[in-house]
Amino acid sequence: MVDFYENNNANVHRGVHSLSLEATEMYEQSRERVANFVNAKEACEIVFVRGTTEAINLVAYSWGLNNLHEDDEVLVSLMEHHSNIVPWEITAKICGFKINYVNVTSDGILDVKDFENKLTAKTKIVCLSHVSNVTGVTNDIKTLSKIVHDHGAIILVDGAQSVPHMKVDVQDLNIDFLVFSGHKMLGPTGTGVLYGKKELLQNMVPFQGGGEMIKDVVFDSVKQQCIVSWNELPWKFEAGTPNICGAVGLAAAVKYLEQVGMDNILAHEQFLTKYALNGMKNLSTVSFYGPTDLSKCGIIPFNIKGLSSHDVALLCDSYGIAIRSGYHCAQPLHQIFQLQSSARASFYLYNTTEEIDRFLEVLTELQTI
Asked: How far is CA 145 from CA 49, 158, 262, in A?
């Protein structure tokens, strides 16, 4: 990113001078790399956005406002991040469609029977996280996607917690929309991706208007109005000057992850998770939430008796250990667990068993407070 700003910085798709051409090439090469990373059929199926939240909002407004009506239904699970709930609640008030929420079991697993029961002929889109950001539980997206398509609906998958941690192949899973964020996969903040099947994106109107996303704006002097035609995919969804350097940085992160190997990353995380759980189970005042006997991504939600989750996080921070506390933007799931909040330890490719050993030492000390 430093190299880009020092040597190639210019706006894209606008100039014929050398810097603009170089920046445009780097930007579009970044799109190609991301497309290959998730195995999209074409690079035009990749839209650069600011993150998972913007990507879901793009679908909710660009697709939802034009395809969902009063008699339609949207299916959302109760394990979702707020960013996969709130946009649908907002657009439901505009369009009048109904949102059905799929239950989650007391240990944080999707209730598949309830999922199938609530998936009806009226369901137009299903919105589901691939991996829970609270528990690390992984949903069987390939099986669920087939069920959704057999009912004539489409599926949006929140891959914010899966794309950075495991191999995600949109063609193999047969996903209609996939959304994920760059900052969760060693990339820069303010970057993200919407993958959409080409035929869906082609039939969607732009989310935002402005420069870049138009092909022509012609003033009709008779009608006294401007006639606007949209740009081609994917640029009709990238209004204004994009985060060019961010896309270049995201591509660099993808390259790094590919070199490490997504299977290696997942295996390392699962090993660390099991290692940490085995140690934490020996602590008498620690409570866990969600399943502890499944191979899942590197997330452990917990609490310590007598301490709030924020107390735990602040005390861990005083020892140089960073964990999350609160609802983790998933309040409905915490309601199912009957919790006000939870602490969350999470692991990635850069974490080690030595760090977990120190974490366990600190938790042992916190039990005595």
From this structure: 24, 13, 22
Q: Which amino acid is at 105?
A: T
CA distance 164 to 184: 6
Give the residue from 208, 232, 183, 187 showing the smallest Cα distance to 57. Answer: 208
Kindly report the backbone phi and psi dihedral angles of residue 120, in degrees, each rounded to the nearest multiple of 5, phi listed first.
-120, 180
Within the chain, residue ranges assigned H as helices are 2-7, 18-38, 52-58, 65-67, 86-95, 112-118, 141-150, 170-173, 198-202, 244-260, 262-280, 309-318, 331-336, 353-366
Is the predicted pLDDT of residue 312 greater than 90, yes or no?
Answer: yes
Residues 6+ away with beta carbon under 8 Å from 17: 10
The string of DSSP letters for 85-153 reads THHHHHHHHHH--EEEEE-B-TTS-B-HHHHHHH--TTEEEEEEESB-TTT--B--HHHHHHHHHHTT-
- Which of the listed residues 202, 232, 260 is the one where a domain comes to its end? 260
pLDDT at 42 over 90: yes
Same domain for 244 and 125, yes or no, is yes
Give residue 227's pLDDT.
85
**Average pLDDT score over residue span 7-21:** 93
Cα of 236 vs its chain's centroid, Å: 22
pLDDT of residue 283: 94
pLDDT (average), residues 283-311: 90
Give the H/E segment covering residue 346.
strand 342-346
Catalytic residue list: 329
Question: pLDDT above 70 covers what percent of the chain?
Answer: 100
Number of domains the chain contains: 2
CATH label of the domain that carries residue 30:
3.40.640.10
Q: How many CB atoms lie within 10 A of CB 106?
A: 11
Residue reference for tokens 């063609």: 171
Residues 6+ apart with CB under 8 A from 273: 136, 296, 297, 298, 299, 300, 347
User: Rounded to 5 degrees, what are φ and ψ at 74?
Assistant: -120, 135
Can you tell me the mean pLDDT for 245-269? 98
Please tell me whether the peptide bond between 301 and the residue prior to it is cis, using omega within 30 degrees of 0: no
Query: Rounded CA gap, 55 and 79, in Å?
Result: 19
